[in-house]
Amino acid sequence: DGGITQSPKYLFRKEGQNVTLSCEQNLNHDAMYWYRQDPGQGLRLIYYSQIVNDFQKGDIAEGYSVSREKKESFPLTVTSAQKNPTAFYLCASSILLRSGRGKDTQYFGPGTRLTVL
Amino acid sequence: LAKTTQPISMDSYEGQEVNITCSHNNIATNDYITWYQQFPSQGPRFIIQGYKTKVTNEVASLFIPADRKSSTLSLPRVSLSDTAVYYCLVGLSGSARQLTFGSGTQLTVLP
């Protein structure tokens, strides 16, 4: 059964603690993404990665870090430097077409809701 | 990145056809138009994608005029379960360039 899994579904963190959100995909997709969504808002890109061992900052990377040691995995760490980390976090993946044309849709995981206590 | 403008919210009744229009005046030549659906506390789900004219699949149709500066998502005979936020995105397919999700359109289907 192919897809993207995120864990945990709900996560609680005390202020000052780092926390890592898991994202795994078995779709053999090259690109993976992390988004943050606040209530009533759209998605904002945190980081994305096109290939293993490479990743790029998105619009709101400050206070977050990522790694891409395996094609299937793209964990996100929310550090204590992130001032307002309470949000819904979504991971996505997509294929990459080297030609630059074609259909490139992002497939999303179920999300992790992070609450800072 | 092409900016998109959609209505903030729309109401409809069960069984009606719903059309949601998205404006994207500065769409680039290679950009595709993609629509996603999102239910509360879930990840967005791909609905349909197109480049020009009309695209139809089992759940929706996408109409794109010749100038491609707007697009219309058409949902035939909506049901209560179609109540969700619908996002219009414009971006270059086949790359990892970030796609901008706006605030979307909250569609509420009433009985």
Which pair of chains forms the biggest interface, and how many residues does each contribute?
A: A-B, 39 and 22 residues
Number of strands of chain B: 9
The general outline of chain A is: globular
Contiguous uncertain segments of 5+ residues of chain B: none
Q: What portion of residues of chain B belong to β-strands?
A: over 45%
Proportion of residues in extended strands of chain A: 35-45%
Low-confidence stretches of chain A: none
What form of chain B results from the Cα inertia axes?
A: globular
Terminal Cα span of chain A: 35 Å
Number of helices of chain A: 0
- Content-based structural category of chain B: mainly beta
Q: Structural class, from helix and strand content of chain A?
A: mainly beta
Main sheet summary of chain A: 7 strands, mixed
Count of helical stretches of chain B: 0
Radius of gyration of chain A: 14 Å
Cα-to-Cα separation, first versus last residue of chain B: 38 Å
Percent of residues in helices of chain A comes to under 10%
Biggest sheet of chain B, open or closed, and with what strands and sense? 5 strands, mixed
Structure, described:
- The complex is a heterodimer of chains A (about 120) and B (about 110).
- Chain A has no helices and 11 strands.
- Chain A is mostly beta strands.
- In chain A, strand 4 and strand 5 form a beta hairpin.
- Chain B is mostly beta strands and about 110 residues long.
- In chain B, the strands form 2 sheets. In chain B, strands 1-9-8-3-4 form a 5-stranded mixed sheet, with no helix packed on it. In chain B, strands 2-7-6-5 form a 4-stranded antiparallel sheet, with no helix packed on it.
- The chains are: A mainly beta (about 120), B mainly beta (about 110).
- Chains A and B meet through strand 4, strand 5, strand 9 and strand 10 of A and strand 4 of B.
